[in-house]
Design brief:
About 35% of the residues are buried. The protein is of the alpha+beta class. The termini are far apart. It contains 17 helices and 13 strands. It has a six-stranded antiparallel sheet with strand order 1-2-3-4-6-5, with helices on one face. It has four domains: about 80 residues, Phosphorylase Kinase, domain 1 (2-Layer Sandwich); about 200 residues, Transferase(Phosphotransferase), domain 1 (Orthogonal Bundle), CATH 1.10.510; about 45 residues; about 80 residues, GMP Synthetase, Chain A, domain 3 (2-Layer Sandwich). The longest helix has 25 residues. α3 runs antiparallel to α11, α7 crosses α10 and α10 packs antiparallel against α11.
């Protein structure tokens, strides 16, 4: 296939192969960009009805845009079969990160929150993934998660009932490495061949989260049918048995995602995402009590962007009432000299807080960055943060970029911070960096041992 042209895409190199076809790196000759092109096996397109449903869903997936969703550019058909053109996402799959032990708990929670946000966006558009698993989530070099293959899994839908299970068993015998991996992430309704909705993705997300947190799958068996039976009927081992000191909210999220009946799981990803944020806060700070009031207030403000017009009107009325109360108090206070003094003091305090906000946000980033053992130094040049690390792995990028995203979300005015993570710095360049301006942090490495003195 190398060098061949499908539509206006020229195939350049193979990228991989899975149960849903072969993936190639290709060149879009019209727009001059590099894309990922997945060519589906001919047997998947043989059924006209199934192919029509797939094309419809793939086009629907192409209409959804979110930072955590790999963009679908195009879907078409040629003499070699049906193909789909997608965003080429660099990085490593979560599956590779788990096996390479490149994700710590905080990094896993950050990836989980990004994936949950992407799922929520897709579900709001009426699209169900049906194949959420570690090999379908990519973490880019800048620490952001992207869900792959939206709209593809529906093509593999089979009829309901016993025929579905027997078909899975037949496939598993011929393609063990491909199909068995997918079986371990199915929801109970998928395992039983029943119709699925967005809550099936929530169950599969729970399996993904469990594996990221513990390194093990919650359901497994000696054969595919044993795995399907475990998914449908067996309860999971608690996270605390595999990993002590797990944040309480993380255990709650996993347990609720993995409930057997769809109606017992989260009704949507929005509520689940809120509890994941609490679990992330617990992992970062060790808090095990109720959610801090500042976090609850921040979540309220974030919810404004998703609120209905009626809710926004209610918020506006409340804000107007609060403004009227503040005006009344200040008006009364301004009638005497003491009131004028206090008004000036409050104004000075607010001005100083605003003036020093960027420095406080940089210190907030620094307090989190210095906890990573691999971080050697942090510098700030204007709005550019540079982190020098011994060896930057996935968790380094995920956690540092998540912290920069968090402080940028808190900065209402001004240019956002940017981040550069470097682990290829020569000793001479390290000395130049440490002697330059803008040093925020330098790791206190122990001095090198002195060489023994020789006696001649």
């Amino acid at each position: 296939m190398i060098g061949r042209t499908l539509g206006h895409y020229t195939i350049e190199a193979p990228l991989g192969q899975g149960g849903m076809g072969v993936v190639y790196q290709a060149r879009d000759t019209r727009l001059g960009r590099t894309i990922a092109l997945k060519l589906l096996p001919p047997e998947f397109g043989a059924d006209a009805d199934r192919k029509a449903r797939f094309l419809q869903e793939a086009r629907a997936a192409a209409s959804v845009s979110h930072p955590a969703l790999a963009q679908v550019y195009d879907v078409d058909e040629c003499e070699d079969g049906v193909f789909i053109a997608m965003e080429l996402v660099p990085g490593k799959t979560v599956d590779a990160l788990i096996h390479g032990r490149e994700l710590d708990l905080a990094g896993a929670l950050e990836v989980a929150m990004q994936v949950a946000g992407g799922l929520q966006k897709a579900h709001e558009a009426g699209i169900v993934h049906r194949d959420i698993k570690p090999s379908n989530v990519m973490v880019t070099p800048d620490g952001h998660a992207k869900i792959l293959d939206f709209g593809l899994a529906k093509l593999a839908d089979s009829p309901s009932g016993a025929h579905a299970v027997s078909q899975l068993e037949t496939l598993a015998r011929t393609k063990v490495g491909i199909v068995l991996g997918t079986i371990g992430y199915m929801s109970p309704e998928q395992a039983r061949g029943l119709p699925v909705d967005h809550r099936s993705d929530i169950f599969s997300f729970g399996v993904l989260l469990y594996e990221m947190a513990t390194g093990q799958r919650p359901f497994s068996g000696a054969t595919p049918l044993d795995t399907l039976h475990a998914i449908a009927f067996d309860e999971i081992r608690p996270l605390t048995q595999l990993r002590p000191n797990v944040p309480p909210h993380l255990q709650q999220v996993v347990a609720r995602c993995l409930r057997k009946r769809p109606e017992d799981r989260y009704s949507d990803c929005r509520e689940m995402l809120g509890e994941l944020k609490v679990a992330k806060h617990e992992a970062d700070s060790g808090i095990t009590g109720s959610t801090p009031w500042l976090m609850r207030l921040e979540e309220r403000f974030r919810a404004l962007s998703r609120a209905r017009p009626a809710d926004l009107l209610l918020w506006a009325a409340g804000a107007a009432l609060a403004g009227a109360v503040v005006y009344f108090v200040l008006d009364r206070a301004s009638r005497n000299v003491g009131g004028v003094f206090w008004m000036g003091f409050v104004a000075l305090f607010i001005w100083r807080r605003y003036r020093n906000r960027r420095q406080r946000l940089a210190k907030r980033f620094l307090s989190r960055a210095r906890r990573l053992a691999e971080v050697r130094a942090v510098t700030l040049d204007g709005t550019k943060l540079t982190v020098v690390a011994d060896k930057a792995v996935a968790k380094t990028y995920v956690r540092l970029h998540a912290e920069v995203d968090a402080i940028n979300a808190s900065m209402f005015l001004g240019d956002p911070f940017t981040l550069v993570v470097r682990d290829d710095v020569s000793p001479d360049e390290v000395r130049a960096i440490l002697s330059g301006p803008g040093i925020l942090y330098v790791r206190d490495d122990p001095p090198a041992p002195a060489l023994p003195r020789t006696v001649s």
